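User: Hello! I'm new to structural biology and keep hearing that structure can be predicted from sequence alone. Could you demonstrate with Centrosomal protein of 19 kDa? Please show me the input and the output so I can see what each looks like.

Assistant: Of course. The first part below is the input, the amino acid sequence of Centrosomal protein of 19 kDa. The second part is the output, the predicted structure written as tokens.
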Amino acid sequence: MSFLYFSNDCTRAAEQLKNNPRHKSYLEQVSLRQVEKLFSFLRGYLSGQSLAETMEQIRRETTIDPEEDLNKLDDKELAKRKSIMDELFEKNRKKKDDPNFVYDIEVEFPQDEQLQSCGWDTESADEF
């Protein structure tokens, strides 16, 4: 069986467990991604992988490679990457109720080298 099949199995099993009325009240505070991860650990154990191998495989599945061309992915894989990015965004997002929330942050970025000007931003208004 292919790895994608196992990945889809874990997703399906996690959705079924989370949506099961018998377990729903216990799992409503647990993200679907966490339940999927649990099933991935179980899948690795049952297939004879070591814990380190399973953790490395899960890390590869749940991180985004900044060099990867997302335009070349099929719709399912793209949706998976977007879901990972959305989860990371929500995890890092500062909300108004957070103790470290600051409304209007202004940051000065250090400039190590001279900025190069572009032709489009040096044109005068008379040239239009």
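User: So the tokens describe the shape?

Assistant: Right, they're a compact way of writing down the 3D structure. Reading them back into a model, for example: Residues 1-6 have pLDDT under 50 and may be disordered.
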